[in-house]
Write a structure and sequence with these properties.
Layout: E1 3-10, E2 13-18, E3 23-28, H1 30-38, E4 46-52, H2 57-65, E5 70-74, E6 79-85, E7 92-98, H3 105-108, E8 112-119, H4 128-135, E9 139-143, E10 149-152, E11 155-158, H5 164-167, E12 173-177, H6 178-185, H7 190-199, E13 204-208, E14 214-217, E15 221-225, E16 227-228, H8 239-252, H9 257-272, H10 282-291, E17 294-295, E18 309-311
Parallel strand pairs: 1-4, 1-8, 2-6, 4-5, 8-9, 9-12, 12-13
Antiparallel strand pairs: 2-3, 6-7, 10-11, 13-14, 14-15, 15-18, 16-17
Helix pairs in contact: 1-8, 6-7, 8-9, 9-10
Length: about 300
C-alpha cells in the first residue's frame, strides 16, 4: 500500500463568487484550491481524496488531466457555496445551497500518508472517529473554518466546535483566523488564544490575519510572518487554503516553521492576484518573497505579540 507525503481529504465544491466587479461560477473548496496549488511544486507525493455528486465528475476529470492524483468517492450531491465579497476582500458572506455526504473511517482505511490535511467545509464533514483514525497513521492538519459553520435554510451561521477539546488532542497543525480563534478559545488576544489551543493538544497553531500577516506558535516560540503586498487584489477565495498547503508542503520538506510560514504567505499573495486557484510554481513564490513589500504584523488589535520571533 503506497504511503503519500501529503494527502488532502475534502469536498470539491461548486462556488458562486460575487465581487463588486463580477459574478463567477467555478469549482472550489479546500480540496480544489490545495490540489491545484501544490501540483507545480517540486518533489512532493500528493494525494487528493474527495467526494462529489455526478454533476461535478467533469471537474474531477480535469483535475486528473492536470496531473493530480484523485480518488473520488460517490456522494448524492456536491457542496454548493455562494461567496459574496465587498470592497474589503477580508470579509465574506456565505450561503450553502447543497451539501455532500460526510467522510467515514471505512472509506479512508486504505489511505496512507505522512500528513493528512482535512479540508472541512461544514461541521459534519469529519467525525472525531475519522480524526482519531487518521492520527494513528500520520500527522493531522485541520482548518477550523468548516467546524464553525452551521447551515440553516442555506444560510451559514457561526457556531463553536462542539467536540473541539476531544478532537484537538489528535491535531498537529491547526489553522484559524482572528474570528475563529476567539470563537474556539474565548480569547481575542493572540498569545492567550494560541496558548489555549496548544494546551488542548495542537502542536503548531497557525493564526492568520489576511492582509495583516500571520502568527505561528509551537508551544515555545511565536513566529510573526509578514504578508506580502499584492500588485492587485482580484479574488481572495482560497487564500487560506493556499496558505495552509504551502505551509504543509514546506514542513513536509523539512523547512523551519518561519521558512514555511513565509513561503505560505507568498503563495497566498500570488493567489489573491488572480481568480481561481494558485497556478504558479516554486520559483514564482521565491521571487515574491524576494521582491514584494512585506507587511509585518508588529501589533494586532487584541494581542501583545510584538517582535518578529518571541521565545517563551
Amino acid at each position: 500500500m503506497k504511503k503519500h507525503t501529503l494527502c488532502c481529504i475534502g469536498h470539491v465544491t461548486l462556488d458562486k463568487v460575487v465581487t463588486p466587479q463580477s459574478t463567477v461560477f467555478m469549482p472550489g473548496g479546500t480540496a480544489y484550491y490545495c490540489s491545484y496549488a501544490i501540483r507545480h511544486l517540486d518533489d512532493v507525493d500528493y494525494k487528493l481524496v474527495t467526494a462529489v455528486g455526478d454533476s461535478e465528475l467533469d471537474v474531477i476529470d480535469k483535475m486528473r488531466d492536470a496531473g493530480i492524483d484523485v480518488t473520488a468517492l460517490p456522494s448524492k450531491y456536491s457542496v454548493y457555496f455562494e461567496n459574496i465579497y465587498g470592497e474589503n476582500q477580508d470579509e465574506r458572506t456565505q450561503r450553502v445551497l447543497a451539501k455532500a455526504d460526510p467522510f467515514t473511517v471505512h472509506q479512508l482505511e486504505n489511505i496512507e500518508a505522512d500528513i493528512f490535511h482535512l479540508g472541512s467545509l461544514l461541521a459534519d464533514d469529519f467525525s472525531i472517529d475519522v480524526i482519531k483514525h487518521l492520527a494513528g497513521k500520520g500527522l493531522v492538519a485541520i482548518d477550523s473554518q468548516g467546524y464553525l459553520r452551521e447551515v440553516r435554510d442555506t444560510h451559514v451561521y457561526p457556531v463553536d466546535w462542539a467536540d473541539k477539546r476531544e478532537a484537538l488532542k489528535y491535531v498537529h497543525f491547526l489553522k484559524v483566523n482572528e474570528h475563529e480563534m476567539e470563537v474556539l478559545t474565548g480569547y481575542d488576544n493572540v498569545t492567550e488564544a494560541a496558548h489555549r489551543l496548544h494546551e488542548w493538544g495542537v502542536k503548531e497553531v497557525l493564526l492568520t490575519f489576511g492582509s495583516m500577516g500571520s502568527v505561528i506558535f509551537d508551544g515555545k516560540t511565536f513566529y510573526q510572518i509578514p504578508a506580502y503586498e499584492p500588485d492587485v487584489v482580484t479574488d481572495a477565495t482560497g487564500c487560506g487554503d493556499t496558505y495552509t498547503i504551502g505551509y504543509l508542503y514546506q514542513r513536509a520538506a523539512g523547512a523551519s516553521i518561519e521558512e514555511a510560514g513565509r513561503f505560505a504567505a507568498a503563495m497566498s499573495t500570488l493567489k489573491i492576484e488572480k481568480s481561481g486557484p494558485f497556478l504558479g510554481n516554486k520559483e514564482n513564490v521565491l521571487q515574491c518573497m524576494k521582491h514584494a513589500k512585506e507587511v509585518l504584523p508588529l501589533c494586532f488589535p487584541h494581542g501583545e505579540v510584538r517582535q518578529a520571533v518571541v521565545t517563551i
